[in-house]
Every structure is written in C-alpha cells, then in structure tokens.
Amino acid sequence: MESPNSAVPQGNWPIERFVWDLTYACPLRCLHCFTESGRRPARMLGREDALRVTDVIAAARPQRISFGGGEPLLAPWWDEAARRLESAGVPVTVFTSGWLMDEGIAERLADSVTGAAVSVDGANADVHDVIRGRAGSFRKSMESLEHLNRIKQERRARGERCFRLGLEYTVTRSGWDGTERFVEEMTSRFPEIDYVSFGAVIPEGLAQEEKFASRELLSDEQLAALSDMEPRLASRARNGAHVSVTDARSFLPTSPLCAQGETIAHIEADGQFRASTNYEAKVGNVLEESLDVLWARALAWRNDPFVAEQRNSIRSLDDWARVTRLLDRRYGSEEDKARIARRGAAA
Ligand code: SF4
Q1: Dihedral, CA atoms, 83, 81, 111, 33, nearest 10 degrees?
Q2: Given Cys at both, which of 91, 249, 316, 340 links 114, Cβ 3.0 to 4.6 Å?
Q3: What is the pLDDT along the chain (347 residues), one digit of tens a residue?
Q4: Whose C-alpha lies nearest to ligand 1, atom 4?
Q5: What atom in ligand 1 is closest to the CA of residue 29?
Q6: Domains of the chain (ranges plus CATH)?
Q7: What's the CA-to-centroid distance between 256 and ligand 1, angstroms?
C-alpha cells in the first residue's frame, strides 16, 4: 500500500500555495459548500488584522494565493490585501460566485488581481440554482461574466493589463449533463474567458455528508469518464480558451500525484491555520504564532499514525467522504463539532 506521505518529499518542504478564506459570509447556500458558508458566523477579520495576515503570507513567498470563502468580495479590504500581495510578487486569484458583481467591483478586480474566477455548477439555471441553493444565482453568474468580460475587453483595447478570466465548474451528478454545449455557449458569449476548468466535487464540508455523498459524488466510472471528456470539451471552445478537467483521482490522498495538495497552506477567516486543506483540524492562528511553527505542526498532524492510516485507506470519493466525516468529527474545534452536529437535513 502506498503511503500518501511517501509520495511527497519528507521534511519542511515549502508552501507553494495559500488558500485564504476571507470570510464565511455568503449570499448563496450551496448544497456542497466546502466551508458551510452562510450557515455559520462570518468570522471576518478587521482591516488591520487582515493586513497582518497578508504580510505573513507575503513573507512566505508562495507561488500564488487563492482568495475564497464564503464570498471573498464581502471583505471590505479584499482589494487592499490583494494589491499588497501582488506588489510583493504573489499572484492573487479571487474565486467568486458572482452574486455581488457590478461594474465597480469588476474594475477593482482589474486594478488588483492576476485572476478572477467565477464558479458555475450547472449548465443551465434549473440545475445551477438548485445546487447553489438560491434562485437567480445562474443569472447573477452570467451578469458577473458580462461585467468581467466587458472590463477586460476595454482594458485590452487600451493596452492595459487585466486579470485572467476563468470559469470554474464543480461537477456533481446533477450537473453532469450539458457540459459540452455549456463550453460552447460560454466561450461564444464571453470571448474574454481565458480558461474553463472542470473538477469533480470533493467530499469536504457539506459534500462529505452521507446524504449528499450518496446522491452527488461521482462514481469511479464517472471520474474516469470525466477525465476522458477533456478533449471533447476543449474542442467546443469557440475563443481559444484553455479547457481542462482536473482529475479528482489525483487528489485522492493515496495518489502519488497528490503531492501538490500537500504544499497548500490554508488559512481560515479568523486567521486559524488548517493542518490540511481538506480537513477541519486546526493547529493555531497566524496572528498569534509564526508560520514556521504552524507549518511544522501541520506536517506533524498529517504524519500522525492515526491520520496517516485513515488517509491511506482512501481509494475512492466514497472512501474519502467516510474518512473526512471521521477526521472532521475527531479533530474539528468544539465550534466545528457543534456546527457539524447541526447539519442534519442540510446535507
Ligand atoms: S460554495 Fe461558495 S458560493 Fe456556495 S455557499 Fe459555499 S462559499 Fe458560498
């Protein structure tokens, strides 16, 4: 049996990428939300502390950072933090549902970040709005793309820099159909889209719960079929956009290809540092302790014999969901455990 920890370099390998949840506030209520946003306290930092976190991240000199959440655009300081990171040479990509987007926010994104990615989880409003838990969310994501497409067009015409515009599609069983046509429609309607990325829903957060997992996680056959679909999806792009399928099997902790996931550092909305991006375990707070200390603790958690044994047992998304349920309930904070216990029908 291959150990997930034997697949990656041992010791203090560098952090290549940060994921920073700026807030857990969110206007949507997605069935698969990895962070259970909108259904828990926002925990958003004030500006001063947020900029302290920004400086900690910049000092680690990662290759890139993703701003997520929750809805990161709800943090009043998101662009100040982004500009600070970009000036320190750290490219920032903001992941948004697009619900809040308007002309002004699109301009602010163009002024501050390397990447803007809009998430869409269904090929049409009927599917997307159910997965996203709010009527009108597909329309909002399309309006968001319209703003971003237009701003990018204008900036390019003036010879100015602008963000890389992406569309991120999380594939569930409900959202399986219609993806080829979707690529064609999106890349025709929004010619400034640089890439469309498809990836199977991962069993984190609400997506780990049995009710969701049994209905919506892709089967082994579907995971394989999704990866095989990449050339067909790519052939439907009408603007030369790069279309890719992220093979979720490479994220399975037992995959030799999962090493990249092991170099991600994940900071929660109040500055807490996750032991691993996929699980609720926390090892301290970046506002209170040095990153070196926290990273060493994170690596120790991943190498803990019980954690390693559980992760080594994962062979499929169903296995992964089972292990996530176990580890989150065992290593989550008291607040996490109380929130998990309240999930009930939400999953
Ligand atoms: S998945 Fe994203 S958009 Fe949906 S509720 Fe969670 S944070 Fe909000």
Answers
A1: 130
A2: 91
A3: 333 333 333 445 589 999 999 999 999 999 999 999 999 999 999 999 999 999 999 999 999 999 999 999 999 999 999 999 999 999 999 999 999 999 999 999 999 999 999 999 999 999 999 999 999 999 999 999 999 999 999 999 999 999 999 999 999 999 999 999 999 999 999 999 999 999 999 999 999 999 999 999 999 999 999 999 999 999 999 999 999 998 777 777 666 656 656 789 999 999 999 999 999 999 999 999 999 999 999 999 999 999 999 998 988 899 999 999 999 999 999 999 999 999 864 44
A4: 30
A5: 5
A6: 17-346 (3.20.20.70)
A7: 29
| The two structure tokens encoding residue 28 | 């949507």
101 CA distance to ligand 1 centroid (A)? Answer: 15
Q: How far is Cα 90 from Cα 97, in angstroms, rounded to an integer?
A: 23
> Which residue pairs, CB below 8 angstroms and at least 24 apart, start in 337-344?
339/36, 339/39, 339/40, 340/280, 343/36, 343/206, 343/209
Give me ligand 1 centre to Cα 27, in Å. Answer: 8
Number of the ligand 1 atom closest to the C-alpha atom of 26: 8
Answer yes or no: are the C-beta atoms of 245 and 199 closer than 8 Å: yes
CA 16 to ligand 1 centroid distance, Å = 24
Task: Kindly list the protein residues whose Cβ atom lies closer than 6 A to any atom of ligand 1.
Answer: 26, 28-30, 33, 35, 37-38, 69-71, 97
User: Rounded distance, CA 116 to CA 110, Å?
Assistant: 9
